[in-house]
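for the record, two folds in this file. i put them one after another cuz i was lazy. first one right below, seq on top, structure tokens after. the second one comes after a little note so u can tell where it starts
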Amino acid sequence: MHEPSLYQVQADALIRQLERDRDRRCHKLERETADWVRQHLREARTQALRRFHKAAELERERYGRAIATAEAALWAEARNRHQQHLSAMVQAVIGRLPAALEGRWQMPTQRRQWLAAALAEAERRLGPGAWQARIAPLPDQESLPPSIGDAHIAWRADPELRAGLIIDKQGARLDASIAGLLADTSMLESHILTLLGEVRGGGTTDV
């Protein structure tokens, strides 16, 4: 066998050195690559978590708005139904009032109270003078006052009146008949709503 030449020995040593350098560089590159991958994976996970939390927050806000909108719509519908129910109750009460008032007029005590209240209001609003009064027919034995204060009253039975009376004085009028008492629908509805509230709250009232 031939002894390796000096050049061969030097070449082999250089090659081995290059191989060692290559291996070191490869290991270093592998470590750096692994570190880079781990770092970027952490960043990617962090960003993904941020995006997830942001998306979850936006979704919660969206559902919150949807729920608030639905609740507002339900409350509006409930208020609307409540108003419709109240309106129906008010109209039902108003529908019963003519018969209820006529029934009161047929009761002597209630009729006298009605008549006294109407005359007192007429005295306040119409003042003294000559009054022309039309009144729903009364029992024959019941008398009517010819005057109140300084006002003189000319009475006339009016069969067209189911209950109550109407007093005229020189163009001014007090209508205490059923139609007159029920003429102011806004005030009447407000009064009925107040009475309904008192009844629901535990109080009682007469119609």
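(here's the note) second protein begins now
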Amino acid sequence: MNSKFEIKATTLQDAVVIVPFSVDDNRGNFTKDFYRKFYFDNNLDCDLSETFYAKNLKANTIRGMHFSLDKPQSKIVKCITGEIYDVIVDIRRNSPTYLKWEGFYLSENNNLSLYVPKGFAHGYLVIRPGIVSYKCSGEYDPSLDSGINYRDETFNIEWPYVETENVIISDKDNRLLSYKEMKVKIKY
């Protein structure tokens, strides 16, 4: 069995799309979505500590843009079922892609994973309801949990399909501040 993975470059430094080993046949699909040696060989942080799943019940739901104020985590994001438009923003001050964003369609059909390096804000729009998996380095610390409003003018993210008046978002995410207001609190 050939279990080769592939990397696709993004426009953001250190962030990549991972094409995992996957086989389709008359029974369905078989996927190997994590291979520690592959991540290690490609200098991707693979010291994973936690896995989270988010069940998204309705289209037009937005989660994000989240990050940790200190002790950032790298993430491997995969849409297990449904479809999302996943967005990352480089908020590392010394990066050549500082304050740039890029969006990616992740779905059960394309079977892609997104490697999100430490120091990025992350969020997504649910296009088709389903389940999203996050494999994370380090440990989540709720006292450092933060984010920036998904409508932030500094980022100017172009969200596809968003019906602004009908967007489903948590009260916490809706109250997130702008990047200009949060910038001084970010430690990297």
